[in-house]
């Protein structure tokens, strides 16, 4: 998955005149691949955390804003969501898919990668930027205690 995504990006960045400088460096390729593998390896844990945080936020449920997080309203109800419905939504709705991916990635960075790096006395290569790809409302829901 990771290698294919990186190859696709490399093709698209070299296909556009003037966009050659946006090609990934070897270090960036390794970082991306490692993070993709990290998310996939912890998928169930991170996905459960996402659903739990969304369903424990009253305004999200009240205004039916679960799609902002890439979560189906059915996932927030007791019991489980039909995987077929979720897979279809992820396949057919690129915005929904992107929102879910962003939220899962943010949870991975904050709850898995950062603590792991701190344990060994290191910072992630891009740690200074923090989670700058999510809006403030989604950050408040995903990290309600500010951590």
Throw out a few tags for this protein:
single chain, 62% helix
How would you describe this protein?
The protein has 147 residues and is an all-alpha fold. The chain folds into two domains: 1-41, no CATH class; 43-147, no CATH class. It has seven helices and no strands. The chain has helices spanning 2-15, 26-41, 43-55, 58-62, 83-92, 94-119, 136-142. Helix 3 (43-55) crosses helix 6. The longest helix has 26 residues, at 94-119. The mean pLDDT is 87.
Summarize the structure.
With 147 residues, the protein is mostly helical.
| Topology as a string of helices (H) and strands (E) | HHHHHHH
Separation, N- and C-terminal Cα atoms:
30 Å
Number of structurally distinct domains: 2
Task: Summarize the biggest pleated sheet.
Answer: none
**Percentage beta strand:** under 5%
Gyration radius (Cα, Å) is: 17 Å
Overall 3D form: globular
Summarize the amount of helix as a percent range. 55-70%
How many alpha or pi helices? 7
Structural class of the secondary structure composition?
A: mainly alpha
Task: Flag low-confidence runs.
Answer: none
Number of strands: 0
Q: Kindly state the mean pLDDT as a whole number?
A: 87
List the helices and strands and how they pair.
Elements (H helix, E strand, L loop, with lengths): L1 H14 L10 H16 L1 H13 L2 H5 L20 H10 L1 H26 L16 H7 L5
């Amino acid at each position: 998955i990771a290698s294919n995504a990186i190859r696709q990006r490399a093709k698209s960045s070299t296909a556009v005149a003037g966009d050659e400088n946006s090609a990934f460096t070897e270090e960036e390729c390794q970082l991306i691949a490692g993070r993709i593998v990290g998310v996939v390896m912890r998928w169930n844990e991170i996905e459960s955390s996402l659903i739990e945080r969304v369903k424990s936020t009253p305004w999200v449920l009240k205004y039916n804003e679960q799609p902002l997080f890439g979560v189906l309203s059915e996932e927030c109800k007791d019991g489980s969501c039909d995987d077929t419905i979720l897979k279809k939504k992820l396949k057919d709705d690129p915005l929904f898919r992107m929102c879910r991916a962003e939220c899962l990635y943010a949870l991975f960075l904050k709850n898995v990668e950062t603590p792991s790096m701190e344990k060994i006395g290191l910072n992630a290569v891009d740690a200074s930027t923090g989670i700058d790809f999510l809006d403030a409302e989604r950050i408040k829901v995903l990290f309600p205690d500010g951590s």
